Amino acid sequence: MSFATNCSNQDRAVRVKRSRIDGYGVFADEAIALGAKLGALTGEAISVAEARRRAQGRQRIMLVELSASRAIDATRSADAMRFTNHSCSPNARIQVQDGAIEFFALRDLAVGDEITVAYGATHHEGRLACRCAQPGCSGWL
Question: Is residue 109 part of a domain?
């Protein structure tokens, strides 16, 4: 599966394709400047308790906690940004504000660069090996 997408939630042209990091990733399909908004992520609004229940025993999930009580499950989302992989040396960041989940470039991105973010705390709780292969990799998610 490799496809270009310009969903309504994408501010920049991106392509979803196989990633050397894990499964599928999202890649810049145009040059992107530092600080540019890349796109947004939407999904099913659920409670954090439900998000944590859904995460149990699953390796691949697409959940973002918005607050202590609210989360978004992007598993069925059509947004390309749901394929953003983790890196210990990310080139983008996730910003969660007022219920919106948005992605911004941390440096200039060239066509073909895989867009990565630092996931922060995850349901894996340090038990899943990190595959980013970046210098200084923490080794675990």
Answer: yes
Whole-number Å distance between alpha carbons of 71 and 21: 25
72 located within any domain: no
Asked whether residue 69 is assigned to any structural domain, the reply reads no
- Structural domain total, the chain: 1
* pLDDT per position as a tens digit, 75-85: 888 899 999 99
Q: pTM score, two decimals?
A: 0.84
Q: How would residue 8 be classed by pLDDT, with cut points 50, 70 and 90?
A: low
The set of residues, in sequence order, having a beta carbon less than 8 Å from that of 104 and lying 6+ positions away, is: 35, 36, 37, 38, 92, 93, 95
Distances (CA, A) of 107 to 1, 44, 65, 69, 135: 27, 30, 25, 32, 17
In a domain, 103, yes or no: yes
Looking up residue 7, the CATH number of its domain turns out to be 2.170.270.10
Whether 115 has a pLDDT exceeding 90, the answer reads: yes
